[in-house]
Amino acid sequence: TSIYQPESFTSVDLGPALGRCRAAVTVEPVLLLAMAALVLQGPLTTQYIYQRSSERLGYAGNSSRGCNSTASPGERRLQQEVETLTAHWNLCINGAGFAVGLFSATLLGPWSDSVGRRPILLVPTLGLALQAAVYLLVVSLSLPVACLLVGRLLSGALGDFSTLLAGCFSYIADVSDKEARTFRVAVLEACLGLAGMFGSVIGGQWRKAQGYTNPFWLALALYLAAGLYAFFFVRESVSVAGSSKLFTTEHYRSVWRLFASRRGENGGRGQLCLYVLCLFIVITVHFGVKDVLILFELSSPLCWQSDLIGYGSAAEHLTYLSSLLGLKLLQQCLEDTWIAELGLMSNIAGLVVISVATTIPIMFTGYGLRILAMATTPVIRAKMSKLAQGTEQGALFAAVACVESLCSLMSTWIFSSLYPATLHFMKGFTFVFGAAMLLVPAGLLGYVRFSYLD
């Protein structure tokens, strides 16, 4: 099995190895740095596409007059055209990248069960850095928006952020026992929120003061720092038996066997498939809402500028930390499944309020109601990890990475298409739709709890 063995380290020897589960800091800095860059880059990219689309269509909305409810019907139609064009560019760019990443993640994850986790921390980090470099060139040289596709495809071909996540979660599964795993996974997800708050606030204020170029330089530097940390300071967590071919169909077969050949008590295969379905729906809603949230805030009646968008994104990522604290406290009196259910209810309530938000206080009330929204995914990830053997963690989280890539592809297609199609009758309908979707995993988790005595 894959266990934490100091003698197998291939990185720089940094001193006596810490025992299993005693390492307070392992891959968390890698995820912090990469996530900070991703959150810094994501909203800025959407705003940049929105600005270029506005210039192309001759819409001066947020840049000169300011958008408001007194705009003429023609101006409103032009604003909707800009939003629609931006949403379609997001669909094209993200869809292409995630489609490529779907195959690379499945290849790299099982490979890490043989060669170790460090390679799948380094390879996707390199891809993300290349993507940031291409985006920087597009912004600096005012290249066509279509050139953003090049960077997105490079990142997808090298695994994308989902493979980096898979490597980090696999690493935590290697070095933690089953009792502590849920909280360790939650800590890792809280790193996403901490980095998200930093990237959101810095990106919004910096873009307002100096434009797009310098923030993209910072994103590139953060990706490079994440790669250097992984190379020099992350110790290997897998006992490496020898070399393994990367380009082989065996890696894909190992993922298939994980779901097709599950044996064990309490219907392990059935549980695993249901947990995957729950994760698919929850993450699809998460990514889908994230795709259209900035467009919702940019346009009337909110008409937020980049600084407010940054604060809103920071409030969204604060839910990672509040969910971690809530998980730790609620574990004293509730089973993990019920904590996941509370997280879903919190998410649903927040999305419903956001759907009808017309002022800043109502919008931030919606963010506040989602205080436990991110408590669901660490519970599901930990439960899936407990159903897999030690030598299957890489294949498992590669499958999860594929699910997340598919989620990103589906969410972009569904939500970015649904948002412009429903603007004429309810601007916030997309968020109501997402809230309704979350009722499905709520029911499935309850079914698993009582059917499998989970």
CATH architecture of the largest domain: Up-down Bundle
Specify the structural class: mainly alpha
Helicity level, as a percent range? over 70%
**Individual helix count:** 17
Span between N and C termini?
24 Å
Query: Which regions are unreliable across 5 or more consecutive residues at pLDDT < 50?
Result: 1-22
> What global shape is seen?
globular
Say how many strands there are. 0
Q: What is the overall pLDDT average?
A: 83
Strand content: under 5%
What name goes with the CATH superfamily of the largest domain? MFS general substrate transporter like domains
Largest sheet: none
Rg over CA atoms, rounded to whole Å, is 22 Å
Protein name: Proton-coupled folate transporter
Main location: membrane
Keywords: Cell membrane, Cytoplasm, Disulfide bond, Endosome, Folate-binding, Glycoprotein, Membrane, Symport, Transmembrane, Transmembrane helix, Transport
Family: Belongs to the major facilitator superfamily. SLC46A family.
Based on the model shown, name its key terms.
454 residues; mainly alpha; 2 domains; 17 helices; globular
